[in-house]
């Protein structure tokens, strides 16, 4: 569990919890257990995603994946334990118990969305009627987007956000969630494993639906710019408190690992 949680990573989702909370209130420290909870779920999802039955990856953050480092059984168990630890962490958020229950709902929705996204990704032919663009967005709104959305909404709820602020942060989260994946797909075709710390080129090799595969590289860059602008526009009316969220959106649009 320590290997999975403390072995590096950008800490994007806890940062989103923190800055969504800070955009809503003046005491963002209240969200720290919830920020940890989100990172436990994220670490869990990566461990299970890397397993032979899922993406079958041997490299993550420049290190052997957990099942290579230990064993498949230990990797499954570490993931299971992190899932439970996440919900235990939520009980330590010191807010009104009614709002704490909303956090449980949001984290559950994040997990459920992630699982359904993984199912849509694993069974691409299950629903032949759907257009490729809709299929791609459905996968990523769930697989990657659901936890990013949960991070922003959980931060906002910890900060006692108004309905308008919660709604603006949800729009922001939906945009950066899709943008995150479009950038990830670009990195997958444009960068080498030595630079990213994970295997690249796998998605195209596996014939997976990707943004560059569907829109081309230039089309993907245009889509990234569109989502970035929409994300920034959603939170800018909040003023300087939202500056870190704007900075995160801009950083995510230009990252190369
Ligand atoms: C965890 C509820 C639950 C279910 C597991 C395996 C699975 C079901 C879902 C897969 C979800 C998944 C791995 C989505 C990919 C998201 C993604 C692009 C991860 C990489 O995120 P970064 O770049 O990672 O933020 P770092 O290493 O920086 O932490």
Count of the separate structural domains: 1
CA radius of gyration is 18 Å
Strand content: under 5%
Our measurement of the CA-to-CA distance between the termini, rounded to an integer number of angstroms, reads: 24 Å
State the oligomer. single chain
Bound molecules: geranylgeranyl diphosphate
CATH C-level class: Mainly Alpha
Low-confidence stretches: none
For the record, what is the CATH homologous superfamily label?
Answer: Farnesyl Diphosphate Synthase
**CATH hierarchy: architecture:** Orthogonal Bundle
CATH topology: Farnesyl Diphosphate Synthase
Biggest sheet layout:
2 strands, antiparallel
> How are the strands ordered across the major sheet?
1-2
Question: What do the pLDDT scores average to?
Answer: 93
Order of helices and strands: HHHEEHHHHHHHHHH
Helix content: over 70%
């Amino acid at each position: 569990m320590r290997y999975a949680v403390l072995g590096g990573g950008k800490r994007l989702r806890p940062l989103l919890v923190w800055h969504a909370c800070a955009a809503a209130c003046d005491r963002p420290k209240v969200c720290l257990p919830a920020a940890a909870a989100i990172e436990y779920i994220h670490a869990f999802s990566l461990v299970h995603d890397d397993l032979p039955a899922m993406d079958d990856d041997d490299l993550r953050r420049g290190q052997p994946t957990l099942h290579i480092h230990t064993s498949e059984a230990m990797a499954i168990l570490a993931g299971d334990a992190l899932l439970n630890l996440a919900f235990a962490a939520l009980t330590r958020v010191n807010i009104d118990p009614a709002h704490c229950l909303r956090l449980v709902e949001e984290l559950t929705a994040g997990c459920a969305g992630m699982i359904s996204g993984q199912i849509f990704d694993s069974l691409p032919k299950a629903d032949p009627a759907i257009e490729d663009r809709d299929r791609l967005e459905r996968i990523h709104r769930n697989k990657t987007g659901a936890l990013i959305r949960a991070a922003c909404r959980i931060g906002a709820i910890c900060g006692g956000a108004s309905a308008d602020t919660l709604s603006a942060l949800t729009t922001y989260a939906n945009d950066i969630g899709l943008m995150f994946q479009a950038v990830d797909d670009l990195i997958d075709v444009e960068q080498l494993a030595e630079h990213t710390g994970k295997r690249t080129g796998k998605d195209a090799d596996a014939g997976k639906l990707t943004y560059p595969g569907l829109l081309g590289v230039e089309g993907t860059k245009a889509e990234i710019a569109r989502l970035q602008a929409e994300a920034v526009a959603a939170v800018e009316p909040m003023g300087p408190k939202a500056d870190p969220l704007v900075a995160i959106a801009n950083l995510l649009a230009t990252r190369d690992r």
